[in-house]
Amino acid sequence: MIYVTRRAEFSASHYYHNPELSPEENRRIFGKCNNPHGHGHNYTLEVTVAGDVDSKTGMVLDIKDLKQLVEDEVLQSMDHRFLNKEVPVFSSTLPTTENIAVEIWKRLAQKLPNGKLHRIRLYETPDLYVDYFGEA
User: Fold this and answer.
1) Tally of domains within the chain
2) CA distance 68 to 50
3) In the chain, which stretches have pLDDT less than 50?
4) Which residue in 33, 46, 86, 98 is the catalytic one?
5) Amino acid 115: pLDDT
6) What's the CATH code of the domain at 76?
7) Is residue 86 among the annotated active site residues?
8) What's residue 136's pLDDT?
9) CA distances from 54 to 19, 58, 59, 110 (A)
10) Is 33 annotated as catalytic?
């Protein structure tokens, strides 16, 4: 089994607000992340695909295909966006790093031309990242 990882970067803004909580609870739990005007991050995304090497191509998948899939399914809809307002799923789901990683998995898992999605790693800052390996 070979693991191939493609890295991409994008910037997005968001805020955390749970309508089921009071304004005070939202401020207490989420702090400055509860600012309704949002705040931004420069994210680094790593998409890892697992598979066997194709005997004809010598590759698990053509990395250009993976790059285009990430561009089409993730970057076009999330890069330089206010996630809560511009990405429909995040109008009803908090756009935490964890939930963004899950959403990216959902967008990519069934659309890979070859191999199987193994991991989504999403860095929110250089020293904070989330790994998502799909549903158990």
Assistant:
1) 1
2) 18
3) none
4) 33
5) 94
6) 3.30.479.10
7) no
8) 53
9) 49, 5, 5, 19
10) yes
